[in-house]
Amino acid sequence: MAGAIQGLTLVFLVDVVLGPLLSFLVYNPAKPKKEIISDFVIIGAVQIAAWDMV
């Protein structure tokens, strides 16, 4: 049971909090589309790295 709660907490923190928060911080509609895509790729890499830290 404790492992399930820890797993759900990890999913919540990484997917529900970290992703949207970072997206909100870096998104700027005035940026070129190529730059926006690279920002979101970096955010995805940060989320994957957060999964590996646990």
Structure write-up:
By secondary structure, this protein is mostly helical. The chain has one domain. It is built from 2 helices and no strands. Helix 1 packs antiparallel against helix 2. The chain is elongated, with a radius of gyration of 14 Å. The two termini are 17 Å apart. The mean pLDDT is 83. Keywords: Membrane, Transmembrane, Transmembrane helix.
Q: Which quaternary structure do these chains form?
A: single chain
Mean pLDDT across the residues is: 83
Quantity of strands, as a count: 0
What low-confidence regions span 5 or more consecutive residues with pLDDT below 50?
A: none
**Dominant shape:** elongated
Helix content: over 70%
Instruction: Give the SSE string.
Output: HH
* CA-atom Rg in angstroms: 14 Å
Determine the strand fraction and express it as a percent band.
under 5%
Total number of domains? 1
Count of alpha/pi helices = 2
Largest sheet: none
Distance between the termini: 17 Å
By helix and strand content, what is the structural category? mainly alpha
Keywords: Membrane, Transmembrane, Transmembrane helix
Transmembrane segments: 6-27
Overview in brief:
The protein is mainly alpha-helical and 54 residues long. Helices cover 83% and strands 0% of the residues. The longest helix is centred in the N-terminal third of the chain and has 25 residues.
Task: Please render the helix and strand layout as text.
Elements: H1 2-26, H2 33-52
Helix pairs in contact: 1-2
